[in-house]
Design a protein that fits this description.
Chain lengths: 113, 112
């Protein structure tokens, strides 16, 4: 049973436009959410995170939005650049002290020049 | 810092053989995680250690899989015997504050 779901396996966006990647979760105990970016033949790298006490966190071109009532988070990239083409994973962790991350299956973003 | 180091980067083996994957975490980190990436299930946590002690191995698929962390700078993931369905990319990650995990480049395992 997937507790963290990324229902769009792929997304194509024109350079300069906004990319919106979505993630849904089922466990209301999750209190911290992260986005990781992964290039081919490399490990995932941390991109941005958000605590459940916030509904928005921004870092340069990247903004993560959290809607707790809908159990939904999204990553906005504005403007999108060809170098943003990668697989994006969302992850969630629970306050159980285990510090486990539950990852989604990823969304492959392609930014077209 | 060199980051998380994994070896080998690629491993091709035949069904039934023993496979050992290695990981060196970032110096000073006290938590280490082993993940498996597949197309169908994405990134799955197999096991993680805190201060060299296994905390949660509920993600280990079966008894053929085992992991050790004999000291703070080294961990192994062993599969014995290996099967074709074990073919995947295996990642090791480490962290200090538990909030941001740093991943290694992964080991691509192919079991024929």
């Amino acid at each position: 049973d997937q507790q963290v779901k990324q229902n769009s396996p792929s997304l194509s966006v024109q350079e300069g436009r906004i990319s919106i990647l979505n993630c849904d979760y089922t466990n209301s105990m999750f209190d911290y959410f992260l986005w990781y970016k992964k290039y081919p033949a490399e490990g995932p790298t941390f991109l941005i995170s958000i605590s459940s006490i916030k509904d928005k966190n921004e870092d340069g071109r990247f903004t993560v939005f959290l809607n707790k009532s809908a159990k939904h988070l999204s990553l906005h990239i504005v403007p999108s650049q060809p170098g943003d083409s990668a697989v994006y994973f969302c992850a969630a962790s629970a306050p159980s002290g285990t510090y486990k991350y539950i990852f989604g299956t990823g969304t492959r973003l392609k930014v077209l020049a | 810092d060199a980051g998380v180091i994994q070896s080998p980067r690629h491993e091709v083996t035949e069904m039934g053989q023993e496979v050992t994957l290695r990981c060196k975490p970032i110096s000073g980190h006290n938590s280490l995680f082993w993940y498996r990436q597949t197309m169908m299930r994405g990134l799955e946590l197999l096991i993680y250690f805190n201060n060299n002690v296994p905390i949660d191995d509920s993600g280990m698929p079966e008894d053929r899989f085992s992991a050790k962390m004999p000291n703070a700078s080294f961990s192994t993931l062993k599969i014995q015997p290996s099967e074709p369905r074990d073919s995947a990319v295996y990642f090791c990650a480490s962290s200090w504050d538990y909030r941001e995990q740093f991943f290694g480049p992964g080991t691509r395992l192919t079991v024929l």
